[in-house]
Known about the structure:
168 residues, mainly alpha, 0% strand, globular
Amino acid sequence: MTNHPHALDALxxxxxxxxEAVLLEVCSSPRWAAAVAKTRPWPDRESLLAANxxxxxxxxxxxxxxxxxxxxxxxxxxxxxAVSERExxxxxxxDRALLGALHEANAAYExxxxxxxxxxATGRTAATMLAALRERLPHDAATEAEVxxxxxxxxxxxxxxxxxxxxx
Length: 168
């Protein structure tokens, strides 16, 4: 990937409130945003992504719930939310039966774990997301929390990279 130092420098130079607002658009966990902000300035893109990885790894169960609260249910991108629609582009055009199965599986997952099914949906079809959801449904809570943490890190990486690329 190309490094865009101007975007990175602008992000690092933002005042605290502006930086917090930008970071909360990436991930809705206040603890994550604060942890990433504390690591600035970032000498390069890789340093910002490493800050994401470290911040994501340190999130408590409550923090993970805060982070997941900012994500749309898989198969139901938030109308008018360009990020949600872009990330869940793989559900566009899925047939009604597949979307119904995804809705049912989401409900079972939410009943079991108490939060939305979180997966890095970028580049995935509705069918592959449904298969992953069904594969993860039998997990115990601790195993699933670690899978969620990994998916969140991937989503945040994509969002941070997009932020740096759009601002260049």
